[in-house]
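Sample 3 of the quickstart, ligand magnesium ion:
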Amino acid sequence: MSPVIALRGVRRTYPGTPPVHALHGVDLLVHRRDYLAIVGPSGSGKSTLLHLLGLLDTPTDGVYELNGADVGALPDVDRTTLRGAEIGFVFQSFHLLPHRTATENVELAMLYNRSPRRDRRTRAREALDRVGLTHRRDALPTTMSGGERQRVAIARALVNRPSLLLCDEPTGNLDTATTATVLDLFAGLHVDGLTIVMITHDLAVARRAGRVAEISDGRLTERAAG
Ligand code: ADP
Ligand code: MG
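Result:
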């Protein structure tokens, strides 16, 4: 079976005088059911790499295969479709609509997949059940704690059954106790078969993943297991 992610010699250079070489020849394989954390300091290329992996940006050079398909030369419209079908995103700052309930926020992720409204509601509720928010499904984000908001965002990321969950500093706005709850949730999703790539600058968070890679000045090195 193809890896979920295969990067070979991926570079990303931002134009300018001088140009910024944000990624220098990154090689990476992520298989189904891997849980990979990528750690690195500010400015090391983490967000650039996550944007490439999430089909929000394209490499300047090198190859990106997602589930065996070369996605480097895809037209924007196909990239957008593929992103919606295959990738769930979780961000540091949740990105929920404040005046929509938890259920409505999750339903919005299914607007483009043409399922009937009643199915969308059922699936949104199932996703909220999975993250332990059954009792908060009619609540507005403005009345929720940070941990609850992040769990709504995780439900939204999961509702289209992505092959890959991409997380950018998912615990960056959470206190220690809430961070543990969210990391326990990721661990459970991983056990259930989800493939997770998480970016963090927090080593304690990274240690919860099965694999840890470090990025520094646009170069990725994986730590030996154990
Ligand atoms: P991190 O997420 O690890 O903080 P980034 O991927 O955001 O790092 O940035 C990596 C490098 O690329 C930094 O030197 C940053 O200044 C530069 N960079 C990021 N985005 C852009 C951009 N749109 N244009 C020019 N330079 C950028
Ligand atoms: Mg960043």
